[in-house]
Amino acid sequence: MAVKPTKSEKKVAYDTKLCQLLDEYTQILVVAADNVGSNQLQNIRKGLRGDSVVLMGKNTMMKRSVRIHAENTGNQAFLNLIPLLVGNVGLIFTKGDLKEVSEEVAKYKVGAPARVGLVAPIDVVVPPGNTGLDPSQTSFFQVLNIPTKINKGTVEIITPVELIKKGDKVGSSEAALLAKLGIRPFSYGLIVLSVYDNGSVFSPEVLDLTEDDLIEKFAIGVSMVTSLSLALSYPTLASAPHMFINAYKNALAIAVATDYSFPQAEKVKEYLEDPSKFAVAAAPVAAAYSSAGPAAVSKEEEKEEPAEESDDDLGFSLFD
What we know:
Blueprint: H1 7-24, E1 27-32, H2 38-48, E2 52-56, H3 59-73, E3 89-94, H4 98-107, E4 110-112, E5 124-126, E6 129-130, H5 138-143, E7 148-151, E8 154-157, E9 161-164, H6 172-181, E10 186-188, E11 191-197, E12 200-202, H7 211-232, H8 240-257, H9 263-273, H10 276-302
Antiparallel strand pairs: 1-3, 1-11, 2-3, 4-10, 5-9, 6-8, 7-8, 11-12
Helix pairs in contact: 1-3
């Protein structure tokens, strides 16, 4: 008969496993495991098997192991994990794409009934329709101010009712009503709270950003830097082109208003002195239009509209 390991031996084995995972993996998802059952967690482990490992444990043990391992290896980046180990959390070590792994984790959610005292993670709305309950059950609906009517011997809800708001605790009446209606409003699973990647910690929302989103944010940043630089007359890579253009416009305005000239302003002054050159430049465009326009118009004029039928063609007159 195999001898069961002692409590201290289990702690040593857990510490060894956690340290090995920290050395092997550089990407970690910190997940909340509230209301997640053991069978559900086992299914998640199976779904992630291959490039990811799920590790659960007490926060004090995990913090101690991470702190000691950071001291032994000299890698202080591991210490960024310690502030994240708060509440009922676990660690998913992965070598795969972080976005794909987080999406895979989100698939393993199961429905759950509304238990008394539970904080609602979402709004719960009871839809209208026939409940299948007999008229003696109307007291539940009256307590919760839900409008009903009796239809064919059963209770029918008239309008949709927001029964529980997100963040509120589930009361006994709400839980009993949802149980009678067979509604399981909540779903639970591992929820990604934070992402650890090579020492950097960031929110999981970052994983949803696309290349277009990053380009848009970068363009907004460049625009702000450009505006600030122009307002301060401080040259930067972003503002320099605009400064050169503005300087050219100022020099051109002086050249046009005075006898001063420079090569880039001569052509502009030439146009202003002889406006007929504008007509010469526009002549090819006008010629092209005139070559196609009148021909098209003449063809339309050649088409004769069909003559309207007179009353004589109908075989009778207005006074017949």
